[in-house]
Amino acid sequence: MDNKDDDLEREQDIEELANRIVSKIMQIKALDGKDWQHASTEDPLETRVTNVPRLYKMYGELAKLMTFLGLFEEDEEYEKCAEIKERIIMINKILEKYDEI
């Protein structure tokens, strides 16, 4: 395969992944009550990629929570926002420990 084919294949993979992420976020956003917390803790990366460093997982979790925070703020679901902010603070404390090393 030449570079154009590789680039096209990568672009298609990225597009497929983006569609899957948006679909998952929309499914989680539609959940009521605390069900979103359970759904948001599922980590499909761990089933496909082994030995992901904890630091990378923390950054991924932080990105996911920031996305949820934005979505719930748009919908004015402030109780969920408060819960998410608590988790963000916890992850930031963990990341600060990595910065100290």
Highlighted features:
mainly alpha; 101 residues
Structure report:
By secondary structure, the chain is mostly helical. It has one domain (3-100). Helices cover 82% and strands 0% of the residues. It has five helices and no strands. Helix 4 (54-74) packs antiparallel against helix 5. The N and C termini lie far apart (43 Å). The mean pLDDT is 77.
Strand element count: 0
Reported for the largest beta sheet, the result is: none
Low-confidence stretches: none
Mean pLDDT: 77
Number of domains: 1
User: Order of helices and strands, N to C?
Assistant: HHHHH
- C-alpha termini separation: 43 Å
The assigned structural class equals mainly alpha
Any chance you could write out the topology, listing elements then pairs?
Layout: H1 3-29, H2 35-41, H3 44-48, H4 54-74, H5 78-100
Helix pairs in contact: 4-5
Short description:
This protein is mainly α and 101 residues long. The chain is 82% helix and 0% strand. The protein has one domain (3-100).
